[in-house]
Structure formats: C-alpha cells, structure tokens
C-alpha cells in the first residue's frame, strides 16, 4: 500500500492527501478490533459474526436498489431525462445480487416501452426524443428481465432502432447521441453494444466506426471522448468494449492501453481513478476494471469479439448456509487472480470504502451513495471476482459466503447468462441491411 | 405543470416565443433535459433570435462549473450556426478560462476549448496559455493533454505536420525534474519519444538528432533514478527496450515489480515473462 509521493505541493496533491486521509481509517487492521467497535461492525453486518472477514451487505443493497425501482414511476426531477438509466442501474445491481423482483417486471417493461419512439430508439422519459444513452439503458434493462419475463423481448422494436442508429451516423464514422446532438465514443459504444445484442450489427452500420474510435486513443494510451481529448476511464471503456465487440481491438495500441489502465489503479486506495492525477472513485471499478477485463479476454484468446467473454460461470454447490465456499479462491495480495490489475485491492476498496452501512455504494466515503455508483461498484466487483477466472472459480476478498456476485459480461455489463439468452432470442432474426431498412 | 405545457408544445411542434420561454423553465428545473435544449435550438432558428443573448442564457444555465453535455453542446451548436468571426472565438475562450479557474480539470471545458481553438484558428497562443496552467499545477494532466493537442494542431496547420521534438522533450524533462513523482510529464515525454522512434514524419528532427535527444533524455532520467520514482523507472525501461538493452530493461522491470510499484505487480510480472520468452528465442 503506497501513498502518492510528491516534492511539489499543488492543489492536486492536496486533494490526493485529503482522500488518503479519508480512506486510511477504513484500512486499519480489523483483526485488532475489540469491544464496541468490533460489536458495531458485526451488528451492521460489515464483518462476519464469527471472524474478521469483510462482508457485502447484500440485503441492504437489495433494499436500496429495489427502492430505486419503486420510485421509477414518479421520482427525481433532475433525472427525469435519465429514467431508463435508473431502471438499468437498479435492475443490473439487483441482478448481480440475484434479487430482481419478478413481480415488478410487467410495470417496468410497460414504463420503458412508453419511452420508445416510433421513429426508433428510446428517450429519457415520455415525450422525449431518442437518445443513445437511454436507448442503451432501456435495451439492457429489458434484456436482463426478459429471460424471466419474455414480453420484454417483444417490447424492443429492432427495425426502427436500426434505422435510427443509421440516422445518427456521421461521415467521420462517429455517431451522434441524438438528433442535433454531440458526437463522441459513448455514442459509438451504445450503438455497437445494442446492435450486437439485437443482432443488428451489419457491415453498413460498422463501416468506419473503428476508425473514428481509434482516433480517440491518446499518447497516454487510454481513450478520450473525441479525437484530441484527454483519456478518461468512462470513454476508454466505451472505446475498448466497442472495438472488442466489432472484433477490432487488435487495431489499437494495446501495450499503451494496458499500461494506462493499470496506472489508474491507486497504490494506497486500491480503487481506480478516471484520469492521471485525479482521485479514486468507485464507478471506475467497472470502467477501468471492465476495460482491463476486455483487454485480458482479448489477449487470452477471445478475439472473435462480439459475444465472447473471458468469464466462465462456475455453478457452485449451494449448502445450507448459502454458497459453497470451497468453490472460491481467496483474493489475497497483488498476485492473485488472472486479470492484469490488483483484484484483491479493488475488492477491498469496494467493500470497505464503497459500502454505505444502510445499503448502496458510493464514489468514496465522503460522498453520498447513489444508484449509478452502486451499479458500477458492484459491476466492478463482479468483474474482479470472475474475470479471467480459472475454471470459473471466483476470486473473492472477504467473506465468501456473502460476497460472491453473479458474473457480468465485460463488453455489455449485463449478466453473462442474459447475454447468452439475448443471442439465442435474436440469432434467427433478420440481420441484413437491405431487409432491415 | 410546466412539463405538461412543454409536452403540448412539442406535440404540436409549435416553434414560438411561448415555447422558447417554456424551454427556459424546463431547463431551469433540469439542465440535462436534452429534448428541451433541442427544441430551443429549433425555436431560435425559426424565430431568428439574437444569439449573443442565447450564449448569456447558456452561461447562466450552466452555473460556475457546468458538467452536463447539453450545455456544452448547445454552445457548440450556437457557435457553429451563427458565429464565425475570430472575436467570437476569443470571447468564447475567455468563458472557458473562467470555468477552468473554477475547476482546472473540467473535462467538458477542455474539450470545448479544443473545438474553439480549431474552429477559430486560435492555436497560436495556446501553448503559452497552457504553460501557465501547468505552472499553476504541474499535475494538471488535462493541461498536458492540451499542450499535446496544441503542438500537434499547430504543426499540422503550419509546420507541414512536423513539430520540434527537442522543444517538447526539454519542456517535459524540465517539469519532470521539479517532481519526479508526477506522472504527467513522463507520459508526455514518452509520447513524444514514441513519435520520434516511430513515425519519422511527425517530428522535425532527423535520425541523428533523434538519437541525441533520446540519449539526453536517458541521461537526465538516469540522474533521477535514485529518487525511487516508478515514473522514472518506467520511462527508463521504455528507452532501454527501444535501445535493445535487455538486461537493464529487466532490472528496471524487477525493481518496479518488487520495490516501487507493487500494486501493478501482475502488470510488471507479465512484462518480465515476455522478456524471458523473447530471450529464450
């Protein structure tokens, strides 16, 4: 555990020092805890009753995320252009925890269906024009509930989405987020990911897309949002996953990319930052950790792109007290696990610094919990447990009885089994430009 | 209520003063409502409205440190549509300056800055103004990225695509020497060196100069080696590999893995394994 060193103090080093000070109390030696402190941590559920292993507060996170789904109908003015996001963040988090409430599915599917425009794509709410982000979030949400509630598949109008995707395409190979909207790699990723899942990835759609994305890789090795922009975890994930889906990840500077992602893991905190000389933030557990999982999958032979994944799911024998812990490997020290980052350190950050004791996860301890950070912290945890795992045996930090999540697909960020089901569902549908338009 | 009226206007596609006022109210409650911004642009076009005012409105809606896509894109769309004079660009740069004073790493602001500099051909003064930002905080990585952007843009517009690698290497080494634990200048340095070693068309110097620049950089970095910075080691490693000094590369890599940069153990370890495989062949 190494704190950041410096000889010239600047506002960057000040903020970094503050963050390290904020994190340090969470990293005390837990086995030395006694008396009321120990009793408190056990009472809130952060520590096992019979040991010192850190626990994922499963039930509390489930409660928090279910609450988000309940509010979906009314809620949040500031997010009223992002309602599909709330649905996806909460549903995917719950899905990783194996706790999506089946009884809510009809209403969710109905609500999301009302955001779909006849001209193709989804808006952020009713009477909103279509936008790449809500289209991505709505489709993922529908695809993850569909295996239990097949009507969700039928709610997606593939043909109109395809036409809309094409209408967002720019001559430079980029996509606009919406009509008269910004062009960046988020748009490229949301189009490519959803097109792949719905079996709409035609040569016409893909043409020039990789070339645009490749222009966004910078001298540091990561990717920015637009050509020339500073590289950044969120955009880098979009770029890397989109390239992998198209089978074109090998076209970028992979050595530079790996170096950049790996340098974003913070030596003391263990979590990831989004950019060089910025602070740790739980959401980058997925954006950076997931991007590394994509690269590792590619280097491990998943070069076909598309549905290929570096994740194999291990079906554990479930005993009376939950998961059979003999089917997990303990995450200990920087050498454990098959991904190219320190998986133990990332899991430790997520469990100790990320969890709010009342449920939900956060950027860092001084920040409030929210659905976005809960979703991506859990997704990063899942990647870090299952990515490049040997024989599908998860690598688990802390209490293996409570902490194992379901494996998420590193390119799409819905569960691997949900991706497989979508593939089956749409594989025989028309996927030919002339027939689609 | 406001939302209801606004939806009604959307449904009838009424591009009027009334709709324009409603978009302002909707944006006031939620500046991320992209449909309202979109509708606003349509109204402005239909009404032929005063556009300086629109920039003011956008500034107001954004507050001191705007971070939503809609506000920044709106500025871009308005500038694209209605402004083309250099003064307009200069004025917009001063707006970006104000935002960067509030948050020197605001991603959208830097991205917008790149757009303005290119559109209004303002690259002339950009390297100097970025140096000021780096002087304020040598770890402002956004400013380093902007230097790269400005140097390369200027080269492509004025220098036949070539820039002076020596100037860039000297600058990066100068700042690196101030604090060897600061990643930004080291990455900048390596970026320039990679261009020297790779695509010869990008830098003004020829092979002999490049050899000299590389050697000087290696010597300067060598002097910093004792300070135990992972960035110094990583840079020396890249140069050693480029120069084919396998043994030194391996030694540096082992020090990174075992002493300086433990959190990246697996990353460095994989590099060592690759070196071993290469050596075995």
TrEMBL record, chain A:
GO biological process, one term: prenylation
Keyword terms, alphabetized: Metal-binding, Prenyltransferase, Repeat, Transferase, Zinc
Gene Ontology CC: protein farnesyltransferase complex
Domain Prenyltransferase alpha-alpha toroid: 56-414
CC cofactor: Zn(2+)
Cofactor binding, note field: Binds 1 zinc ion per subunit.
Superkingdom of the source species: Eukaryota
MF terms (GO), sorted A to Z: protein farnesyltransferase activity; zinc ion binding
Catalyses which reaction(s): L-cysteinyl-[protein] + (2E,6E)-farnesyl diphosphate = S-(2E,6E)-farnesyl-L-cysteinyl-[protein] + diphosphate
EC number: 2.5.1.58
Function recorded in the entry: Catalyzes the transfer of a farnesyl moiety from farnesyl diphosphate to a cysteine at the fourth position from the C-terminus of several proteins. The beta subunit is responsible for peptide-binding.
Family indicated by similarity: Belongs to the protein prenyltransferase subunit beta family.
Subunit details: Heterodimer of an alpha and a beta subunit.
PANTHER family named among the record's database cross-references: GERANYLGERANYL TRANSFERASE TYPE BETA SUBUNIT (PTHR11774), PROTEIN FARNESYLTRANSFERASE SUBUNIT BETA (PTHR11774:SF6)
Record protein name field: Protein farnesyltransferase subunit beta
Species per Swiss-Prot/TrEMBL record: Triparma retinervis
Automatic annotation (TrEMBL), chain B:
GO cellular component assignments: CAAX-protein geranylgeranyltransferase complex; protein farnesyltransferase complex
InterPro entries linked: Prenyl_trans_a
Cofactors: Mg(2+)
Keyword list, A-Z: Magnesium, Prenyltransferase, Repeat, Transferase
Pfam families (alphabetical): PPTA
Domain of life from the UniProt record: Eukaryota
One Gene Ontology MF term: CAAX-protein geranylgeranyltransferase activity
EC numbers on record: 2.5.1.58, 2.5.1.59
Broad enzyme group: transferase
Record keyword Magnesium present: yes
Family statement: Belongs to the protein prenyltransferase subunit alpha family.
Protein name, UniProt field: Protein farnesyltransferase/geranylgeranyltransferase type-1 subunit alpha
């Amino acid at each position: 555990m190494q704190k950041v060193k410096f000889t010239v103090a600047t506002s960057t080093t000040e903020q970094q020092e503050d963050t390290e000070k904020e994190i340090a109390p969470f990293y005390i030696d837990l086995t030395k805890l006694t008396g009321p402190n120990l009793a408190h941590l056990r009472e809130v559920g952060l520590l096992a009753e019979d040991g010192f292993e850190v626990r994922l507060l499963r039930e509390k996170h489930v409660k928090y995320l279910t609450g988000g789904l309940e509010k979906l109908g009314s809620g949040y003015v500031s997010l009223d252009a992002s309602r599909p996001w709330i649905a996806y963040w909460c549903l995917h988090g719950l899905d990783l925890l194996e706790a999506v409430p089946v009884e809510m599915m009809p209403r969710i599917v109905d609500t999301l269906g009302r955001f779909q425009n006849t001209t193709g794509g989804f808006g952020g709410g009713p009477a909103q024009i279509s936008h790449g982000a809500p289209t991505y979030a709505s489709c993922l949400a529908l695809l993850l509930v569909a295996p239990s509630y097949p009507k969700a598949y039928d709610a997606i109008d593939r043909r109109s989405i395809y036409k809309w995707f094409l209408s967002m395409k720019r001559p430079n190979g980029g996509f606009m987020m919406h009509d008269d909207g910004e062009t960046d790699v988020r748009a490229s990723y949301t189009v490519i990911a959803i097109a792949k899942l719905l079996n709409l990835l035609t040569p016409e759609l893909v043409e020039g897309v990789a070339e645009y994305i490749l222009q966004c890789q910078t001298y540091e090795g990561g990717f920015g949002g637009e050509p020339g922009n500073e590289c950044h975890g969120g955009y880098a994930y979009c770029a890397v996953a989109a390239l992998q889906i198209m089978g074109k990840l090998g076209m970028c500077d992979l050595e530079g990319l790996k170096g950049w992602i790996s340098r974003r893991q913070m030596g003391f905190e263990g979590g990831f930052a989004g950019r060089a000389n910025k602070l740790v933030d739980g959401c980058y557990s997925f954006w950076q950790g997931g991007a590394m999982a994509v690269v590792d999958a590619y280097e491990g032979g998943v070069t076909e792109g598309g549905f290929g994944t570096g994740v194999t799911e291990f079906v554990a024998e479930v005993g009376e007290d939950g998961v059979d812990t003999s089917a997990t490997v303990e995450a200990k020290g920087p050498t454990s696990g098959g991904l190219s980052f320190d998986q133990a350190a990332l899991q430790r950050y997520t469990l100790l610094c990320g969890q709010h004791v009342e449920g939900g996860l956060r950027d860092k301890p001084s920040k409030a919990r929210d659905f976005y950070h809960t979703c991506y912290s859990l997704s990063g945890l899942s990647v870090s447990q299952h990515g490049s795992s040997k024989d599908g045996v998860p690598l688990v930090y802390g209490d293996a009885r409570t902490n194992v999540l379901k494996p998420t697909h590193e390119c799409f960020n819905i569960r691997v089994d949900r991706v497989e089901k979508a593939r089956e569902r749409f594989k025989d549908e028309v996927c030919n430009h002339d027939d689609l338009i | 209520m406001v939302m209801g009226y606004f939806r009604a206007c959307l449904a009838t596609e009424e591009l009027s003063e009334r709709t324009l006022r409603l978009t302002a109210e909707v944006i006031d409650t939620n500046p991320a409502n992209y449909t309202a911004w979109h509708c606003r642009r349509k109204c402005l076009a239909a009404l032929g409205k005063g556009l300086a005012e629109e920039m003011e409105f956008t500034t107001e809606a954004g507050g001191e440190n705007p971070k939503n896509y809609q506000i920044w894109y709106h500025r871009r769309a308005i500038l694209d549509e209605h402004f083309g004079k250099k003064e307009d660009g200069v004025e917009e740069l001063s707006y970006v300056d104000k935002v960067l004073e509030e948050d020197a790493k605001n991603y959208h602001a830097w991205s917008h800055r790149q757009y303005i500099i290119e559109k209004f051909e303002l690259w002339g003064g950009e390297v100097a103004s970025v140096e000021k930002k780096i002087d304020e905080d040598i770890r402002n990585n956004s400013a380093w990225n902007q230097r790269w952007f400005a140097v390369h843009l200027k080269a492509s517009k004025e220098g036949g695509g070539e820039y002076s690698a020596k100037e860039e290497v000297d600058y990066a080494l100068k700042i690196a020497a101030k604090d060897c634990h600061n990643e930004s200048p080291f990455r900048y340095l390596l970026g320039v060196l990679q261009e020297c070693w790779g695509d010869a068309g990008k830098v003004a110097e020829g092979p002999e100069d490049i050899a000299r620049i590389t050697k000087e950089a290696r010597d300067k970095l060598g002097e910093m080696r004792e300070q135990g910075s992972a960035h110094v080691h990583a840079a020396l490693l890249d140069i050693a590999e480029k120069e084919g000094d396998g043994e030194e590369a391996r030694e540096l890599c082992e020090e990174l893995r075992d002493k300086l940069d433990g959190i990246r153990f697996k990353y460095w370890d994989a590099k060592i394994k690759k070196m071993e495989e290469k050596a075995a062949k």
